[in-house]
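BUG: 3D viewer hangs when loading the predicted structure for this chain

Environment: internal workstation, default settings.
Expected: structure renders.
Actual: progress bar stalls at 90%.

Input used:
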Amino acid sequence: MRGALGELRSIPVTILLVAIATTAQLAPELATRLTIDLRDTTSLATYRLVGCHLIHWSAEHFFWDIGMFVLLAGFCERWWPRACYLTLAVSAIAIPLAVAIGHPEITSYRGLSGLDTGLFALLATRLLIGSLAARDRVGGFLFAGMLVALAAKVAMEFQTGDLWFVTPADFTPLPLAHLIGGLIGVAAGVMGRGLVGEAGVSAERLAAHRCSGPRSTAGQPLAAPVQDALPLPSETFCEVFFRKG
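Structure tokens produced before the viewer hung:
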């Protein structure tokens, strides 16, 4: 039993959640089991608060949400696992509760888009902090621009009542879910430096590396060899998407 639990814990959370979401999309009885009734407080069990994010209103809704989740959660879980888990856990509970309070006319909530928004905000925030620590101007503008673009997207959704990627024919758009997820992602990104054991693309490690190295007799750092420098956050990010060979 312990061996089975150990193997389960070794599975990345991203893969586990994608597997459940895919199963729920193919098995209506599981989707029904995870459906949350926001008007009924007895329906607000923890497994429904979390599970409602893994079910979707349509195939289009599912494919857009799951595609973004695989990409964003994959990066965040690898680079900042604790901040990623914090974002997912807090967002999973806060978003349905916020929707229940802010939209009393809504009876149910489904979809990963709120969690996707939180992960995007976490990714941009952590890389922005890393860029500022490493004095990476390109990264600073790039990742700050990502946060500005996210804020503009959410503001547009509030203004128009529509979504960018999915045609909401089968459900009511809820930009409040994206706002809550985004705020939680930014907060987790800012708090990330205080999470014990956090690894990956670390702002502190980048800054420490660039400020360390041989020093003169006066105590001033000497220029480190170029080949020994760690990549800037913007270089790391671009390498992932534009790697050659």
